[in-house]
# Entry
Amino acid sequence: MTMNILIIDDEPDLLERLKSVLTGEHYTVETAGDGRAGLEKIWNDTYDLILLDIMLPGMNGLEVLSEIRAAGIRTPVLMLTAKGDIEDKVASLNLGADDYLAKPFSLAELLARVRALIRRGNTGSPVIEAGDIHLNTVSREVTKDDEPLILTSKEFALLEFLLHNRGRAISRFTLAEHVWGDNFDPFSMSNFIDVHMSNLRKKLKTSEQEPIIKTVRGFGYLIEREGK
# Structure
């Protein structure tokens, strides 16, 4: 079944880029360049996901979000926020946004968030899993065989991103960019990803199991689609 996505953003180049990328992933994509035009599309059609920029002319993204939630529309909404703008992020979540992504963002992370939100919208659950590992994206709790696992923030971010991308090999650089962002220096921090991944694998693995996180030699890491 084709999934319909609406992107509301006033940057024409970004709109076209996102539309091209998402269409390439076999989503049906519509766009709007301002809040009122986007709201009109929402009233007149049904979407599986809305990508909504906060800084829009006329009617901003928070106002659009408030309108649709007040109307009882529960479509998952991914807010696009200015980098480091904590107030906007908090306001978005308080108004009913499902997730947020700070500009500029990597396309790999965008696609991971899109897949996760569409999957969550179909199941009604914020839990993603692989085998006996369950990760709750809202409470940020992780369990193995129903027993809680204590992960650092970096370990959680690595696991969440790989689970969002199940069945896809993710490069070491993409993982590092996701976890450390602009603070990642590939020259001085090249072993950081390996150290954190090693620690994460130890927490996830039992002696009887193959590791859930597989190494893709010379490239990166993978969680297979079928889990264990």
